[in-house]
Give the backbone structure.
Amino acid sequence: MSDKKQDNNDFEFIKEQVIVKKHRKFKKWILPFLMTVLMAVLFGIIAAATFCITEPRLYKLLHKENPNKAPVTSPTVDSEDEEELSPEEPDTITKDKDEKELEKEHAEADVQKPNPVIVEKSIEADINDYITMYEEIKSIAYNSSKSIVKVSSIIKEKDWFGNPVEREVKTTGLVIADMNGELLILVSLDRVKEANNIAVVFTDTVKADAVLQDYENELNLAVIAVKRIDVPEIFMNSITVAELGESFSIANGTPVIALGNPNGHPGSMEVGMITSRGSSVSITDNRLDLFNTDILNNENSDGVIVNLKGEVIGIITRTLKEDTNEKLSTAIGISKIKSIIQRMANKAPKIYFGIKTEDMTDTAKRKHEVENGIYVEVVKANSPAFEAGIKNGDIILEVDSQTVVSTNRFYDIISECKSGQAVSVKIKRTSTSAEKDIDIKVTLTEKSNSK
């Protein structure tokens, strides 16, 4: 019994000792923790107070301004600054720099410092704005289409068995003039050249016969004429003469509309933009500008390119295309063919010299020591130039004492001459060991449509 009691006492003693030991460990840990927290709070309060008191004085000391330090200014000068300069300042500047240098600096300043764009209010476009935009494009196309008519050509052929058949070729034409009781219409030559009958189509049952008046083989363009009395008045009232614009100032990214049959279907319409310009093509005695659009092209494409003012700026071509632009619509710039169209409309004689040329670059001019001129690339056989002795590689400097600066200027000069007229041509011959200037007489002739 006593042993059992002793065992209980030992157990109770051990249990009591364990409880006391844990209590002491907890007190030993909590007191240092509380002291650390208290010290951290106290340190933070002291640091904040010190910073608030010393910060203003330190800022003034560290950011003290130097009165001799010049402000940083932009080197560019805008138009407003130029107006504010005193009269004496430009005189001082021009002592070191001439006027060309000043103009260059001002141009660079304009590029470096564009005018700011201020957006007063942001307006989100919705589907109605999209519809409105296309309604305006449709309106431009509708008004421009009043100058476009459908043209049908009937070509009589024989089938494989020798039986006579008729083939119809459909296209569109551009009304370029209304004079002397006739409507003059510009069309693609290959659509009407072999036709036995040409007609302007207004409806399935209303047509007016037309005749081929004149054409240009190299451009694949022709002018047909239809008598006004053959056109019903109701249709005549809705026809307008096309407004020809200019193509010198067109730029990549300019939105355009293609009318006529740009996708091969007469009366179709396409919307796109100019994707490249600056290319050109040589024809006899002249050089034409071309530009390309992102409008798809096929073997039946015809028509015109108009800008958003409704002005014709190009004639779609299928024959003067480059291989790289085979699937895109290529157009002849209208500016350089206006005079050709005018000559066809008036049935005026076309003066023939008989060369294909290239405009000279500055590098080529320096190489041959000339200030101007055009390089003769090809001399047509049996042409006036060939008969006079002009050769490939010659540089044409003057025609009848008129300076030749480009192929287009050369064309303008000879176009003012008459058939049979002899002109004095100053050339520089480069095909000999020593280049030399030569004067040659060339007797101009009238160009036939077969040339």
About this structure: Confidence is low (pLDDT under 50) at residues 1-20, 69-97.
